């Protein structure tokens, strides 16, 4: 029997988030202007991680559902922040994580 998808998704999200909270900043760390800041994991990356253990149609279905939920969450955030027009589209694309080479289109 397969474990419920929600339990798998929650555990994978915890695996992604737990190291962030476990790190403590170094008090006197020298600034390095040549290094780049780490990019936060996008909702798309989280969706890909939660569907990594699935295969075939199950994987495609769960990825599509996860991405739809991510878009909805980002749209709600844009509405709460009163972002409208073209900036809203850009905000949602950035929030979901589809600003890359795929042109913002999902499966």
Describe this structure in words.
It contains 4 helices and no strands. With 107 residues, the protein is mostly helical. Helix 1 crosses helix 2 and helix 3 packs across helix 4. The longest helix has 25 residues. The protein starts with a helix and ends in an 11-residue tail after the last helix.
Labels describing this entry:
disordered C terminus, elongated, single chain, mainly alpha, 107 residues, 4 helices
**Helix percentage range:** 55-70%
| Spatial gap, N to C terminus | 28 Å
* Secondary-structure element order, N to C: HHHH
Shape: elongated
Concise structural overview:
With 107 residues, the chain is mostly helical. The protein has helices at 5-22, 43-50, 56-80, 85-96.
Write the layout of secondary structure elements.
Blueprint: H1 5-22, H2 43-50, H3 56-80, H4 85-96
